[in-house]
């Protein structure tokens, strides 16, 4: 679950909904930015479904007593989270070995510096999975790098939309994104980054013309009142809160 506070409520977005949005954005990527269409379906499938393991976990949100806040994807209990990471990868594998390979690499990247027993075990398990999956396809390293960065970029771009209020000023943005996105695509100059900023409550400007400006996108959110959480608990309050839709589009880059 993506969760942040705004005024008197918790803004909550299911992880799989966020992933579906990342896939919708990726599907609209300007054709000129694809260096090669090999495995395009598999890449888009991976982006759409990289968080499908969260579908079960997010069906009933749980409360973090220590933080007095709903558990989010960042602090959800690790043993359970890792089990569902792997469940999600295995579900993706039913459709595409290459998509599963990308998702495995994506989740494994969170644990490069892991020191906990469970984190190290997860990292090693995914290394073995990746070695086995390599028998199913052949992709040049440069193209794989592009595909992997594409997954991570659209994951980040969707988080940019979901994890803060529309129209937020640059100085009040999440620190993750103030200096641009971290991916180093082949079409960028050395040390150049893709930048984003909210122009208004429904418009985002990117520094590169990646996505058509005539496309509109939407994500389901819930604004769960804190008072209702205090009264009924997070699960009941979330269930009782109606769904809203956050809609947006992109404006042309600065000339």
Write the layout of secondary structure elements.
Elements: E1 2-6, E2 9-13, H1 15-27, H2 40-49, H3 54-57, E3 63-64, E4 69-70, H4 78-93, H5 97-108, H6 117-133, H7 141-162, H8 175-178, E5 196-200, E6 203-206, E7 216-225, H9 226-232, H10 234-240, E8 244-251
Structural domain count: 1
**What is the H-and-E element order?**
EEHHHEEHHHHHEEEHHE
Q: What does the average pLDDT come to?
A: 96
How many DSSP helices? 10
What is the percent of helical residues?
40-55%
What Rg, in angstroms, do the CA atoms define?
A: 19 Å
Assign the structural class, choosing from mainly alpha, mainly beta, alpha/beta, alpha+beta, or little secondary structure: alpha+beta
First CA to last CA: what distance? 37 Å
Biggest beta sheet attributes: 6 strands, mixed
Number of distinct beta strands: 8
Walk across the major sheet and give the strand order.
Answer: 1-2-7-8-6-5
| Shape, principal axes of CA atoms | globular
Low-confidence stretches: none
What portion of residues belong to β-strands? 15-25%
Overview of the molecule:
It is a single chain. This protein has 255 residues and is of the alpha+beta class. It has one domain (2-251). It contains 10 helices and 8 strands. Strands 1-2-7-8-6-5 form a 6-stranded mixed β-sheet. A two-stranded antiparallel sheet has the order 3-4. A hairpin with a 4-residue loop joins strand 3 and strand 4. The mean pLDDT is 96.
Summary keywords:
single chain; 6-stranded mixed β-sheet; 10 helices; 255 residues
